[in-house]
Amino acid sequence: MDNxxxxxxxxxxxxxxxxxxxxxxxxxxxxxxxxxxxxxxxSHSNDGFKKVPVIMASSERVxxxxxxxxxxxxxxxxxxxxxxxxxSSISKNPSEKGTVWGNIPPTSKLKGGSIPMARxxxxxxxxxxxxxxxxxxxxxxxxxxxxxxxxxxxxxxxIPVYITVMYSITVRTDYQQQMNDIIVPFMTRPGGIxxxxxxxxxxxxxxxxxxxxxxxxxxxxxxxxxxxxxxxxDIKVLGYLIGDGANQLTPHQPSxxxxxxxxxxxxxxxxxxxxxxxxNL
Length: 281
Hints:
Layout: H1 10-17, H2 24-39, E1 42-45, E2 48-51, E3 54-56, H3 61-65, E4 82-91, E5 115-121, H4 123-137, E6 152-157, E7 161-173, H5 176-188, E8 195-200, E9 203-209, E10 214-215, E11 229-241, E12 255-257, H6 273-278
């Protein structure tokens, strides 16, 4: 992130961007956007070369039926080909800590926040210190001089907690040609590696397409069941969580101001200056 934050209402701009919030929902959305928008898989069908719908397996059936045409027919049956995404597991491995290896305690027990994210000048308070200095030294306000006491406000975020999320991708088709059209891009587009970058808004996560593509077809069974072609593979995502989401008790982006002046007053109420000279204290 760029440290040069605009001076005009910078804290509100940072809060509107939600730069410090990363939840499981953001990781789910990043995986869905990668398959649906970035991969943008098409396949041949009876209606021509059409885009393959992508749905989250966790959605309710009523919600899926309202998403629009192309997912279910008038009888409520899923229209193939189809790609489904399911979050199968989440693990927190202490050995996979991403870029933050050490535990950074919060700088404030009341507000929280461990890692500085942005810093900007508090103009009104800095101007008050400058005007007091110039009035004492020069006898007038707003006298041009180098800044002596500048007040900065630092915006911090909680320490990221890194997790490993596994997603199971299931592809179902009616024909073998459709299956070939869909699974080939998942093998070829990452190139000779399986490393990909997925994102949701300003959040970026690392993902890895696993090497096994398992088939669960029933074409060898001579039964009355509907013929299907089904392929499953996994995507491993190294994600991170920042904050407690809806249960966050402290501010999502706490801010603190620095100390520019320290004063230690003399205790003259108990022992006056005259008494100190009299008794040679």
